[in-house]
Amino acid sequence: MNKWLHAGIAALLVNLTWLDPTPGGVALAAEGGFKRALAGYRYAFPRDHANHPNYKTEWWYYTGHLASASGEAFGYQLTFFRVGVRPKRAPGRSPWRIRDLHMAHLAITELNPPRFTFFERLARSDVGLAASDNKNYLVFNGNWEAGRVGDGQRLVAKQGGWGLDLRVRSLKAPVIHGMDGVSRKGDCEGCASHYYSLTRMATAGELRVNGRRVAVRGESWMDHEFGSGQAGPELAGWDWFSVQLSNGAELMIYRLRDRKGQTLAASSGTYVAANGVTTHLKRQDIRLESLGTWRSPHSQAIYPARWRVMVPVLKLDLQVTPVVADCELRTPGSTQETYWEGPVRYAGSLGDRPVTGRGYVELTGYAGAFRARL
Length: 374
Fold this sequence. Notes:
1 helix, 374 residues, single chain, ten-stranded antiparallel β-sheet, 13-stranded antiparallel β-sheet, mainly beta, AttH-like fold
């Protein structure tokens, strides 16, 4: 069964029936009905931390910077994906009817000396190998899981001598990205997601690093998105940046690219002031320059490797530097994508004051055009 799933995941992700609008303004799939991410969605927490089974695609994305008492520094990424194959209300009760596929990625970055280690998983929910709860926040894939505990969350993942067990607690209210409840990913109706972040989370717990147990503390960032077929047909990849600034503010931006490398109009971002007040940023508000490249010795893909990020309306000007060059994930057994995701440092100015920061960058579509329609 698992062998068949691994071999067939690419075809499932690309060839599943996608959504078309129907009369009455309700977006339905030919196979029974997944919702599109449309304007007017009203978020409610903690409800929206949980699973949204009426949408085809969903992910919970954690990244963070951690350090031990002795000064060892680490980055981490833990991501859970859910892809709906059949809507929850579709007929049929056989345990072998696939309703959801669950994928997960785990990466631990050691900063000194530099080393990047990653793992992937794929499972189906129908036979209990993975699941996500739509009433209480819990998502798991084998012995990897994320869920609500008290006023925070617990993240657990174990893979041989590697893994993590972390408690995270948000220091700010959830930040809603986009306008009128949707974060656009293309020009067509429904080419969007419902997308929010917990932009600064106090973090403490333990890493497993090649068999060693290391007590760590630091800060994390969580992204949660859900939608159906939200990627526009022109999308070839994206550059995504998260920033936690030393003045208590945060920034998220994403640059969507077409197959010619041009920036798409739906590219946008959000600035979060130290007091939690948010500012939506349109494509024209953001300037992004590549200052260097890195060639992967694994895929031979050439990625941008340093950047200048400018937001003139905020008088924000940052230089971005990867902490470790080789943070490429190759995932033939799950999402079928090769992408770069790693910790970065920021330095520059906000207004007339110097500012530093740290965060993560994700780069897709450089090892081949992004194939999976989300």
